[in-house]
Amino acid sequence: MFSTQFTVYFLTVLGSVVALGPAAVNLRSAANYAILAKSGVSTVPPSVITGSVGVSPIAATGLTGFSPTVDSTGQFSTSAQVTGKLFAASYSAPTPSTLTVAIGDMGTAFTDAAGRVNPNFTNLGSGAIGGRILTPGLYNWSSAVTIGSDVIILGGLLSGATDRWIFQVSGGLSIAAGARVTLAGGARTSNIVWVVAGTVSAAAGAHLEGVVLGKSSITLLTGATANSRLLSQTAVVLQKATVTN
Ligand SMILES: *[C@@H]1O[C@H](CO)[C@@H](O)[C@H](O)[C@H]1NC(C)=O
Ligand SMILES: *[C@@H]1O[C@H](CO)[C@@H](O)[C@H](O)[C@H]1NC(C)=O
Fold it and tell me: What is the annotated signal peptide range for this record (predicted)?
């Protein structure tokens, strides 16, 4: 399974000094949030979120399980589960308009990432990519993608820190319990984008790297971890999960 990818890697990736893979996806102000969602973010405590959380157009009632304390300015709240601030469309100005822009930017980023053409890899593994080594490039699946066992996202020896990956998934993305997506070769999570039309789910103890642009819900079950931004056009559901931005 690895041999063809390794050959490509050694011939083109290992020695490249210029960044490989598609042009960056500009998240604009959506990059100010570790988690951003339109219809809600819920947690079964204790989750650990490093970065800020935003919900819009739903009001603060869309923040579930955070036991938030609203700041005296009324512009944000805080929670023991969040290193950063929580923002909702019902908070005081300028928060609602700031969130409206961020939600718009999230949609623009989704459209950009999903609209990239001429993939380097089409329907790799028929969507079952456990055990794969993923070199830089644009990947497109017209199906769901399942990660049943560990996957490595591998950058080039000289270019790894600037190499980029876009994974376009037309179905859902599911990561099996305990399966880990990890980085090697200097690859950076901020240079990786999963653009997913269906639901995203990480089962217990799974680990994900990369920005997730979800058209649907994103769920991290018990003990799942993500070095990531979770940007959903519906809801984000956390159960004792860790999201580090
Ligand atoms: C995969 O590529 C096709 C053809 O370019 C495109 O229509 C589709 O939107 C892509 N899938 C995703 C999830 O971006
Ligand atoms: C990916 O495909 C693009 C467009 O065909 C090409 O320019 C680029 O070299 C490919 N990248 C890799 C890493 O194969």
Answer: 1-19
| pLDDT band with cut points at 50, 70 and 90 for residue 14 | low
Query: Where do the H-state alpha helices sit in the chain?
Result: 3-8, 95-115
- Does residue 140 have its Cβ closer than 6 Å to ligand 1? yes
Q: Is the CB of 62 under 6 A from ligand 2?
A: no
| pTM for this predicted structure | 0.93
Total number of residues shown for the chain: 245
Amino acid at 64: T
- Strands 200-202 and 218-220 come out as parallel
The residues near 18 (Cβ < 8 Å, ≥ 6 apart) are: 159
In the chain, the N- to C-terminal Cα span, in Å, equals 32
Q: Whose CA is nearest to atom 1 of ligand 2?
A: 120
Q: Are 171 and 195 in contact (CB under 8 A)?
A: no
Domain definitions of the chain by residue range:
3-244
User: Strand 133-134 and strand 69-70: pairing?
Assistant: unpaired
- How far is it, in rounded angstroms, from Cα 188 to Cα 227? 10
| Cα gap 245→3, rounded to integer Å | 33
- Grouping H, G, I as helix, E, B as strand and the rest as coil, residue 96 is helix
